[in-house]
Amino acid sequence: MLTEFDEIEDILRSVFEQARQDIIANHELAGQVASGRTKDSLKVEVIPGVSEYTATLFGREFFGALETGSRPWKKQYKHPPKPFVDVIRQWMADKGISGVSAYLVARKIMLEGSKLYRDGGREDIFTPVLQEVEEKLSQEISKIFDVIVTKTIERL
């Protein structure tokens, strides 16, 4: 028999899974997918506790850059570090970009930030989805607590 607390876990899992799918759809619609590693990194975790639940949507480090872009580097180097150039080279290969120097792209990002950053960013990948999560959870959890309070009052 499901209890109200089991329902809370189901609601959290459902709402966060839908958020994961919506973020991936927005990411794809924006044409940001190169290798797919970023979208594949999105994972939902719901941990039930004694009197509380923790729900988390995990993503790769720097996931926020999907909306903000990459800012210029605080510490400037004379040359882009080889690992960064390698990352840019792999990104270019994943996107099918050729005829451009990965070194020069890395240098420009280091000095000026990414094009998305220079253009002012965007707020349509995960920001509206997370706002929806907050609204949905507020509505759904409120319904559950109404039931719990009503049952408690009926027992008194």
Characterise this structure:
The model has no long low-confidence stretch (mean pLDDT 92). Helix 4 (82-95) crosses helix 5. The protein folds into two domains: 4-62 and 121-155; 72-112, no CATH class. It is mainly alpha-helical and 156 residues long. The protein starts with a helix and ends with a helix. The chain has helices at 4-29, 37-40, 65-68, 82-95, 102-112, 115-118, 127-155, and strands at 43-48, 53-58.
Q: What's the topology here?
A:
Elements: H1 4-29, H2 37-40, E1 43-48, E2 53-58, H3 65-68, H4 82-95, H5 102-112, H6 115-118, H7 127-155
Antiparallel strand pairs: 1-2
Helix share bin:
55-70%
Q: How large, in whole angstroms, is the Cα Rg?
A: 21 Å
Roughly how many Å apart are the termini?
23 Å
Biggest β-sheet: strands ordered side by side in the sheet: 1-2
Number of strands: 2
Which residues sit in consecutive blocks of at least 5 with pLDDT less than 50? none
Counting structural domains, the number is 2
What is the succession of H and E elements? HHEEHHHHH
Main beta-sheet annotation:
2 strands, antiparallel
| Number of helices, where a helix is a run of at least 4 consecutive DSSP H or I residues | 7
Strand content: 5-15%
Structural class: mainly alpha
Mean pLDDT across the residues is 92
Shape: elongated
